[in-house]
Specification:
The chain is mainly alpha-helical. The protein has twelve helices and three strands. The protein has one domain. It is about 70% helix and about 5% strand. A hairpin with a 2-residue loop joins β2 and β3. α7 crosses α8. The radius of gyration is 20 Å and the shape is globular.
């Protein structure tokens, strides 16, 4: 059933996004040192190409078979963060495992491994079951238990923003898998209630939500980063100040190479550059949906939907934070922001998308 024809549209869109992102990242990282840029290239981008190729060449049946074990390995790595000597703390959170000079963030890998697990769970349990006799206990219960376990671990770091992305993505996959509607209703309201409980547990996160509705308050305190990002976006105008010419990255934006990188992009390329970047991401999302729709395998379809939803949700949150639509949080912009762990995970996801594209129904 294999067509052996790569989706060159998806590959072309991805290459355009990644190289455009590298130019913006090089500009944003120039305010610190060149080591940041070389670290992203040699420890993120180049190894990511290798990982993408490995996932591209790995049979989908093998990925499906090993998905639960990969997830449990990922959860084990998350648990290691609570053992002294393994974790590295930054910005008040213990999210990184340190191995000598190298470090990585297990929660970033979870964005992909949980999608693979949910897709394998759903296809294994309901592929041969009629809708009227849906195996609720075999599907909803393990999904709910693993989700609660992940939520407990991530909230203990704490990392609410990553948790929102992971569970939102998993919810989309669960919803499109022809599961009973009441399952989705229960999961949705449980998630909303859990979100507000999490805000109460960590009051500073609730403060960020409140500040979102009043960006003019405390401009030199809790709303300082938001104000500077809005200034950067507005300073770009229609055509931007030019590549490398951002002013806000010099000590005004808190994290110009990571969380605030879209503000640098908007300031240097302006409205036109920002729209082009968004159109590229929408084209990427559209192509992914085409691949999912034309795929012959249900597991492959769910994985593609999960990957596209994850990239779309994360991009929306990052850009939404930059323009004040969402509360300030440390979410990287996919394919662009600094961060080796998230870039490696996204490159692996690209490899899987290209792998699935080989099995599309060609018209």
């Amino acid at each position: 059933m294999k067509n052996k024809k790569l989706d060159y549209i998806l590959l072309g869109v991805f290459c355009t996004i990644i190289f455009f992102g590298l130019f913006i990242f090089a500009s944003a990282a120039s305010v610190t040192s060149n080591s940041l840029f070389f670290s992203q290239i040699f420890l993120g981008f180049l190894p990511g190409i290798v990982i993408a190729y490995l996932f591209f060449r790995t049979p989908l049946s093998l990925i499906k078979k090993w998905a639960p074990y990969i997830l449990f390995l990922n959860i084990f790595l998350l648990i290691l963060l609570f053992i002294p000597g393994f974790s590295e703390t930054a910005r008040g959170s213990a999210r990184w495992i340190a191995l000598g000079p190298l470090s990585f963030q297990p929660s970033e890998f979870l964005k992909l491994t949980f999608v693979l697990y949910v897709a394998s769970l759903l296809t294994a349990k309901i592929s041969k079951t009629k809708r009227k006799s849906f195996p609720t206990k075999e599907v909803l219960f393990p999904f709910f238990v693993v989700s609660v376990l992940i939520a407990f671990i991530l909230l203990s770091q704490p990392d609410l923003s990553t948790l929102v992305i992971i569970l939102s993505t998993a919810f989309v996959v669960y919803f499109v898998a022809e599961t009973p509607l009441w399952h989705s209703v229960v999961l949705f309201f449980t998630g909303v209630i859990g979100f507000f409980i999490a805000l109460m547990i960590h009051p500073y996160q609730l403060t960020r939500v409140i500040n979102m509705f009043n960006p003019q308050s405390n401009p030199l305190g809790s709303n300082y980063q938001l104000r500077q990002m809005l200034i950067a976006v507005g300073s770009g105008g229609i055509t931007g100040l030019g590549l490398g010419m951002s002013q806000q990255k010099f000590g005004y934006l808190s994290f110009p190479a990571s969380d605030s990188i879209f503000a640098v992009l908007a300031e240097e390329t302006g409205f036109i550059g920002s729209i082009i970047f968004l159109l590229l991401l929408l084209l990427f999302f559209w192509r992914g949906i085409v691949i999912a729709r034309e795929s012959k395998d249900k597991f492959a379809r769910l994985v593609v939907v999960g990957i596209c939803s994850w990239i779309f949700i994360q991009t929306s949150i990052n850009i939404g934070v930059t323009i004040g639509v969402f509360p300030v949080t440390g979410i990287p912009l996919p394919f662009v922001s600094y961060g080796k762990s998230h870039l490696l995970t996204e490159m692996a996801a690209i490899g899987i998308l290209l792998n699935v594209s080989l099995y599309m129904r060609r018209k």
